[in-house]
Amino acid sequence: MTVKTLADIDIPQIAAAINQSFSDYIVPFQLNAEQLQYKIIQEDVNLDLSVGIFDNDALVGLMLHGLRKNNDNLVAYNAATGVIPTYRGKGLVGKMYDFLVPKLQKLQVQKMVLEVIEGNEPAIKTYEKMGYNISRKLVCFSGTANVDEAYKEISIKEASTFQWNQWLSFWDIQPSWQNAVQSVENSKAICKLLEAYLDNELVGYLIYNANSKKVNQFAVSASHRQKGIATALFSRLQQILDSEMYVYNIDGASAACISFLKALGLKEKVNQFEMERAV
């Protein structure tokens, strides 16, 4: 078996290997070539830093990695790791890391980040052996929002301009890689925006993907919370989607946010751990 980057491997072959690797996963996960291409763009996956293990020409294990600068530090994000079932137990993940880490060190990458489903003990133990530690818990929700008519004094408007300078001032938790500002910027062509106004003042926003029904981000100004603003945003979103929605990777430390989503009637779908290690 040989280890090499995925730079010269076509997207359909990578997608097929991912689907084989996740065919028996705790949470069903399958994607086609078009969805994988979108993931690569959104998450800044670099195929020169993504690794595959090949048995002759067959791709039997792989790791996708994105690369970004965060506060002047380069961070690598593991966007997917998988080994097809018949090749597990052979230490292939370790072999891929042995190949990858020197490349990251040469680039002066400071940190590596990944997400793993809570309860996936074999994967968690494997990553711990690779030097990863749990940094935080991420909670994922899905369902339909059960909301009454929102407060009439709150105006919800569809927007087209990304007002990051103002929106970021509403934050008190950081989103995960998939929902970070750069990920949203990378996919802004298919993102939709809702903004909440109170007395003509912008006090909240929500970004979502109408195709996947996923909420990328939402936040309310700290000085205007407990006024029904987030409820009004989700009420409008539920009207627009008229279907189930998905709110993934909420920081487990944000008790207020988690309580709010539960109060809306959304259900915890799965929990993940975000894990980090130095390079």
Summarize this structure briefly.
By secondary structure, the chain is an alpha+beta fold. The chain has helices spanning 11-21, 33-42, 92-106, 121-129, 164-167, 181-186, 229-241, 255-263; strands spanning 2-5, 51-55, 58-70, 73-83, 109-117, 133-143, 154-159, 191-198, 201-209, 214-220, 245-251, 267-278.
Q: What characteristics describe this protein?
A:
elongated; twelve-stranded mixed β-sheet; Aminopeptidase; 2 domains; 279 residues; alpha+beta; 8 helices
* Biggest sheet, spatial arrangement of strands: 1-2-3-4-5-12-6-11-10-9-8-7
SSE series = EHHEEEHEHEEHHEEEHEHE
Mean pLDDT: 95
What CATH first level of the largest domain would be assigned? Alpha Beta
**Counting H and I runs of at least 4 residues, what is the number of helices?**
8
Supply the CATH superfamily name of the largest domain: Gcn5-related N-acetyltransferase (GNAT)
Largest sheet: 12 strands, mixed
The N- to C-terminal Cα distance equals: 25 Å
Number of strands: 12
What's the number of structural domains? Answer: 2
Low-pLDDT stretches are none
SSE class? alpha+beta
Helix content, binned percent: 25-40%
**Percent strand:** 35-45%
Write up what this structure looks like.
28% of the residues lie in helices and 37% in strands. By secondary structure, the chain is an alpha+beta fold. The protein has two domains: 2-131, 3-Layer(aba) Sandwich (Aminopeptidase), CATH 3.40.630; 141-272, 3-Layer(aba) Sandwich (Aminopeptidase), CATH 3.40.630. Strands 1-2-3-4-5-12-6-11-10-9-8-7 form a twelve-stranded mixed β-sheet. The model has no long low-confidence stretch (mean pLDDT 95).
